[in-house]
Design brief:
This protein is mainly α and 557 residues long. Helices cover 35% and strands 8% of the residues. The protein contains 18 helices and 14 strands. The strands form seven sheets. The protein has a two-stranded antiparallel sheet. The protein is globular.
Length: 557
């Protein structure tokens, strides 16, 4: 059920139409001195903030921006020419359209937050103080979230917290550490005002604010802050893991207590997305534009809790058996039923079963014969709900921004990195591993810091694949330079690997020992430029550099 009503306030469409997102948004804001004088108008302004905060780059069919980001990491591939491939091919530059539009859209969100926070005082005497405070706090949380994303993509960014005029818009980048200080303070103060949870309404709450604080602190290596914030959410007692992992990413899971915040979509408000089309199979009328890698498939452990190169349960001839259930919940695997069809990408499987009708029928297998079928042999299964099959570009399935499993794993990772290792660390990881529909073995007791670090990194990969956290993880762990470099593999087109690849401490496969590795499909050869740490940050868009001479470009661009 959708509980946020989308109200389009014509006077609040703070859009950027000209050269710079920094110097234009104040000029296009409302001019009336009488707007934002009552509760209804404050809520209209807040809804406009929520409407924009799932910002996306070009050709994303309004998918939430975080869902798209896995295609810029080692576990995902983007087929369309939308500016995304440049980031994994070593070709990113300041004129990249995806980077440009992400920057622009993020500052649109920030401008809407700033407009509301700067001008809402006009309504202060006309609104219940509690409601007034909560509206302001929600805007501050969304703004802080947006700055988390900006700093993880670009590092230092201009910190804009009020409405500014043209002369004030020539400003330098604020050091990331200072932006982080601002984020943590904002989230702390917002959490003190907001209720613990808004119960599936799509509104940010105190638990959202504290969870985002934990994320920001983890990303910036402020371990004690991350521990404290994550533990505060855990101690609230209002969130818990959803028993059915697969259902979390379906309409049936929209009201789950695991979801701390999700981006809202609603057909009646004309806010929809095409994730089902982007992720879907060719048989199911999908385009398979964004697909997972063979390396992700091979990263998942066997049901004995061991990597596939160490487990006696792994059979190269039956590679999808005896594996962590999250693999099949996250990915459409050959031999499974996906979008109502037998999903088989072996190139000799020219026909397959159609299960959509009352009686199964044999049909041409587009997932093996179509030139634009999945290039890796796999599809993403998360966010592909049967209710969207009939119209895969018109989905109103909410997309998750942050959930309770992340809070648990943030807590565990921060404790590990702070070398505060106790029973609570394994307990947090095991809680995620052992939800009823996953039920992987508990971690062995007595693991040291290095072993626990490996465990939590792998757990984040298994748990959050397809949700857009991977890019930030491999960057902050400083492993992107080897995780991304080299061939991006799909499956063997007419078979399987003859043996398991070697899995390293981060869950990344090495195929050099596999006898038939040369039969694997090389989707593309990737390049990560590590000189000057270049590809650990995105280039500042040229349009922004031209409009704001105070900006300094990231090294290497």
């Amino acid at each position: 059920m959708k509980n946020i009503t989308y109200i389009i306030a014509g006077t609040l469409l703070i859009l950027i139409a000209a050269c710079s997102s920094l110097d234009q948004y104040p000029l296009n804001g409302p001019s009336s001195d009488t707007y934002l004088t009552n509760e209804s108008e404050l809520k209209e302004a807040l809804y406009e903030i929520y409407d924009a905060n799932s910002y996306e780059g070009p050709n994303s069919t309004r998918m939430a921006h975080n869902i798209v980001l896995d295609a810029l990491s080692d576990i995902g591939f983007e087929r369309n020419s939308s500016g995304i491939p440049a980031f994994v091919l070593g070709n990113a530059n300041p004129n990249n359209t995806y980077s440009r539009d992400m920057w622009k859209s993020a500052y649109v969100v920030i401008s809407r937050c700033n407009y509301l926070l700067t001008n809402m005082h006009r309504a202060e005497n006309n609104v219940n103080p509690k409601t007034y405070g909560e509206i302001a706090a929600q805007a501050r949380v969304v703004r802080a979230y947006t700055y988390i994303t900006l700093t993880e993509l670009w590092g230092d960014v201009p910190l804009v917290t009020t409405m500014i005029n043209l002369s004030e818009s020539i400003m330098p980048r604020t050091p990331k550490s200072e932006v982080c200080d601002f984020i943590l303070k904002e989230l702390d103060e917002a959490a003190a005002v907001l209720p613990d949870d808004y119960a599936g309404t799509g509104q940010v709450s105190a638990s959202t604010a504290l969870a985002l604080k934990a994320r920001a602190a983890l990303y910036n290596k402020r371990w004690d802050v991350a521990i404290q914030a994550a533990k505060a959410v855990m101690d609230m007692g209002v969130h818990e893991l959803h028993n059915d992992f697969a259902e979390l990413f379906m309409y049936a899971g929209a009201g789950s207590k695991e979801i701390l915040w999700s981006f809202q979509y609603l057909k009646s408000a004309k806010k929809v997305h095409g994730t089902c089309r982007n992720f879907g199979s060719r048989n199911g009328q999908g385009h398979s534009n964004k697909v997972p890698s063979q390396s992700l498939v091979d990263a998942y452990q066997c049901t004995d809790g061991k990597d596939i190169d160490k487990s006696s349960l792994y059979d190269p001839k039956k590679p999808f058996e005896n594996r962590d259930p999250r693999m099949a919940y996250t990915l459409a695997l050959p031999g499974s039923i996906f979008m109502g069809y037998q999903f088989e990408t072996h190139k000799d499987s020219v026909n397959c079963w159609n299960y959509r009708g009352a009686t199964p029928t044999r049909v041409k297998n587009e997932d093996a014969t179509n030139a634009y079928a999945t290039f890796t042999g796999y599809c993403w299964r998360k966010y592909v709900d049967p209710l969207d099959y009939a119209n895969p570009v018109d989905s109103e399935l909410n997309q998750i921004a942050i959930r309770y499993a992340e809070v648990l794993l943030i807590y565990a990772e921060a404790k590990i990195e702070a070398n505060q290792i106790d029973e609570s660390v394994s307990a947090a990881i095991n809680e995620v591993r052992q939800r009823p529909t996953v039920n992987m073995p508990a971690l062995p007791s007595g693991l040291n810091q290095s072993q626990l670090r490996s465990a939590v990194r792998k757990e984040r990969l298994y748990e959050f694949a397809g949700e857009g956290l991977r890019l930030f993880d491999i960057r902050r762990w400083r492993i992107a330079e080897y995780a991304i470099n080299g061939p991006f593999y799909g499956r063997v087109p007419k078979g399987y690997l003859q043996s398991a690849p070697q899995i390293d401490e981060n869950g990344i496969p090495d195929y050099s020992n596999v006898p038939n590795k040369d039969e694997m499909r090389v989707v593309e050869v990737r390049k990560f430029v590590k000189e000057d740490d270049r590809d650990y940050l995105w280039p500042i868009p040229e349009r922004e550099m031209s409009a704001n001479p105070a900006l300094v470009q990231n090294p290497g661009f």
